[in-house]
Amino acid sequence: MPETAALLAAIADTGRDPVRGGYSRPVFATAERDLLEWYLAELGRRGLEGETDRNGIVWAWWNPAGAPLRDAVVTGSHLDSVPGGGAFDGPLGVASALRALDLLRERGTEPARPLGLAVFPEEEGSRFGVACLGSRLLTGAIAPERALALTDPDGTTFADAARGAGLDPAGFGRDDEALARIGCFVELHVEQGRGLVDLDAPVAVASSVIGHGRWRFTVHGQGNHAGTTLLADRHDPLLVAALVVAAAREVAAAHPGTRATVGRLNPVPGGANVIASRVDLWLDVRHPEDAVTAAVVAEVSRRAAELATVEGCTVDVREESLSPTVDFDVALFRRLSGVLPGAPLLATGAGHDAGVLAERVPTAMLFTRNPTGVSHSPEEFCTDADAERGSVALADVLADLLA
Ligand code: HGY
Ligand code: MN
Ligand code: MN
Ligand code: MN
C-alpha cells in the first residue's frame, strides 16, 4: 500500500468515533487524544519533536541546516472532523505532509530554511461552533475571551476542554512569535467537489476560498403538551424554525451563486410529545461576494422575525463566525503552478485554516482529486494512487520553496 494511504488508514482506525460512527474526531476529546498520540509517534519515528503551542496547535520542525526558526515553509492541516465526516477532510493534508517530508529526505533534499509541520485544532468548529478556532486564535481573528467562553453540546467550555488537554486557557490568543516563524504556509486538502474529476486531473492549485459565515438562530416559544394544547393556543418555535429553513433556501435561490445550509437544528427539550420551548438552528451562508452573503443573512433574519411574530414567538440571531472571501497570495500560487504545470487553478467553497492564515502570512493550497465529489460525509473519497500523487506534488512544491 503506498505510504500516504497507509498513513490515512492508520488515522481512520485511530480516529473512528465509536459512538457517532464515521470518522468524527472532535477536538481535545478522547478520540483526538488517541489521534494526537498517533501523530506525535509518527513525528517521533521521523526524529521530529511535536510540541503543542498555547493555542493548541501542534508544530514540528525539520531543520537539518540548523537555520533560525524564521521564514520557514510550513505545511499541514487538521485532524478533527464534522460529525460522521469522511476520512480525508483534514487527515489527507496531515498524511501528505508526513509523506512529503519522507519523500524530501529520500531525495536527499537539503533545505535552506526550516520545514514546519502543523496540525490545527477545531478546524470544523464541530464541537465549539466556530470553524478554524485554532488558526483564528493564532492570527487574532477571534478574541481569546470569546473562544474560552464557547461551550460544546455538553456544556463544557473551551477553557475546560483546553485544561483537560493540558493547555493553559490564559495562553490563548494571537501569537506573533509563531507567525513570525512562517515564511509561507501551504495546505494540501482533499477536494470537496468534482472540479478535478471534471478536469480529469489529480491535483489542483487553489486560487481562492469563497467567503462564508455561520449564524445561530434561536427561536423562543411556549413549551407545552402535545395532546392538550389546541393549535390556536400554540407558540411553536419548531414550526417557525422549519419555515426559516424553507425561507433560507428561497432567499439563497434569489441571490445566484449563494450556498445556504441549515445542517444543525436543535429543539429543546426535544420530546416527541412535547411542543418545544426553544429551537436553535445554525445557518451557514457562502458567496464569493461578501456583500451578497450579508444581504442574504439580513433577508433571512427579517423573514425569521416575521414568521416568529405570526406564531407568537421571538427569534435572536447571532453571528458565530464570518470569513471574507480570500484570494490566495498570487506570487505564491503562481510559483506552485510553475512547479506543477499540469495542475489547474481551482476556487473552493470550503473554508480552511489556510484561508484564515492568509490574513497574516503568504498562503497557498493544493487539492487532491475526490472521485465522488462528496465531502462532510462518509462517501468522501480519494484513491490511494491520487493520495500518493498529491504527496509527490506537495513534496515538489516544498522542495522548490525550501531551496
Ligand atoms: O466548513 C467548511 O467549509 C470546512 O470544511 N471547515
Ligand atoms: Mn471540512
Ligand atoms: Mn478541512
Ligand atoms: Mn405526560
Automatic annotation (TrEMBL):
**InterPro entries under this entry?**
Amidase_Cbmase (IPR010158), Bact_exopeptidase_dim_dom (IPR036264), Peptidase_M20 (IPR002933)
Annotated coiled-coil segments of the chain = none
Pfam families the record matches: Peptidase_M20
Gene3D superfamilies in the record: 3.30.70.360, Zn peptidases (3.40.630.10)
Q: Which UniProt keywords apply?
A: Hydrolase
Question: Which domain of life does the protein's organism represent?
Answer: Bacteria
Q: Which family does it belong to?
A: Belongs to the peptidase M20 family.
* PANTHER family associated with the record: ALLANTOATE AMIDOHYDROLASE, ALLANTOATE DEIMINASE-RELATED
NCBIfam families in the cross-refs: hydantase, PRK09290.1-4
Q: What is this protein called?
A: Allantoate amidohydrolase
